[in-house]
Amino acid sequence: MPSLTELSALLYPPQPEAGLERPYSFRRLYGPAPQALQAQKTRYRELLERFAGVFPDSPEIASEIAFYSAPGRTEVGGNHTDHNNGRVLAAAVDLDIVAAAAQNDEGVIRVHSEGYTPTEIRLDDLSIQPAETATSAALIRGICARLVELGWQVGGFDAVLSSRVPKGSGLSSSAAYEVLIATILNHLYNQGGIDPALLARIGQYAENVYFGKPCGLMDQTTSALGGLVTIDFKDPGNALVRKVDVDFSASGAALVIVEPWGDHANLTDDYAAITREMRAVAQAFGGKVLRDCTLEQVLDNIPYLRSQVSDRAILRAVHFFRDDQRVVDEVAALEAGDFKRFLELVNESGRSSWMLLQNCYSERRIEQQGIAVALTVSEDILKGRGAWRVHGGGFAGTIQAFVPDDLLADYIAKMEQVCGHGACHQVMIRPVGACRVDLG
């Protein structure tokens, strides 16, 4: 097999003029640190070697093999706001899924993901297969079916995948996988002409209809577009998406995701109860979702609401309205360069999730409160200098912290004493979304 240098020369045009940087270069995807760049070069080389071993009969011409990357994402603002048509703030991160892929003319898609059973589907039948529910095959078939339905082209390819998005970390490995598959098909069969926002909706369709999970659109949109993204779901079918142009490297703080190692099993009812209770409050006022109502309605009618819904539902509704507005305020603070105010808002969100939303632990597992412990220790270490919050679904998931650079080593050491070795994931906000990678 060719070296990375030889592959790059075949795949991509000459270097741009001095001072310019390719939009999908290693530096844009993984940052400027030499050690990180070298680690990625090694990773890509190993992926190329795996491709040769898994698909020995695939095209041997290097120009027919390309690399693709789709990032994980981190939720920055808006905890459990999207499912009631609220607003969110999210960011793509430098932890990604990478594929080495080559087109085939067999009408078959074969995907070998590191550590998982290989997946293969034929393209002559794109109908829903009940036996594939909740599998990667369902996602691939659903993506292809939706592309065809919308008038785009699909075809066979062989791919090997390497993921650095920790499963169960709240960084949305599933959305990155969906967007990655859609991106490969976009470049191999549609000249890269499909808009990233549409690729996100196609991924969501596959997860909703074929995989069988009623997810929202935040994760796929952020992975497809990259950077920092704010999304308004007031009209879910036509969500308003806007990129927020902010250079986080100038903030003097690192973004860290912490896994307190809770038990993730059997939490579906806990997640579903948040949506159900918030919507019950809306229905008490004749609406369908909380975005149809106002905070003033809730606060002015608490005696009436207590006769209709639980007290917890009322508190969760108050969280929704305040966190929804916080997203707007966070975007304004970031665009004004007021990082101090942004961190204050992040801490407010963290406390609101803890006190009002109440998604720090499951009421059925009161002895397991890893998220609450991680938040408590974070607050003690940071002492008002950074920020901490519940990240994503909660209950047994992860927390997010913005840590001043001079406290970073101490923060990670102490958090891993409490939560276990490898519990902390320092991430960089990645400015670009899913793409074909420029090895130059």
Q: What does this protein look like?
A:
- By secondary structure, this protein is an alpha+beta fold.
- The protein folds into two domains: 4-246 and 430-436, Ribosomal Protein S5, domain 2; 250-427, 2-Layer Sandwich (Alpha-Beta Plaits).
- Helix content is 42%, strand content 18%.
- The protein is built from 14 helices and twelve strands.
- The strands form two sheets. Strands 1, 2, 3, 4, 5, 6, 7 and 12 form an eight-stranded mixed sheet that branches.
- Strand 6 (228-232) and strand 7 form a beta hairpin.
- It is globular, with a radius of gyration of 22 Å.
Number of separate domains? 2
Low-confidence stretches: 7-21
Q: Please state the second-level CATH architecture of the largest domain.
A: 2-Layer Sandwich
- Using the coordinates above, name the CATH class of the largest domain: Alpha Beta
Number of strands: 12
Beta-strand content = 15-25%
Global shape: globular
Largest sheet: 8 strands, mixed
Q: What class would the helix/strand composition place it in? A: alpha+beta
Order of helices and strands: HHHEEEEHEHHHEEEHHHHHHEEHEE
Averaging pLDDT over every residue, what do you get?
88
- N-to-C terminal Cα separation, in Å? 18 Å
Which percent bin holds the helix content?
40-55%
Helical stretch tally: 14
**CATH fold-level topology of the largest domain:** Ribosomal Protein S5, domain 2
Radius of gyration: 22 Å
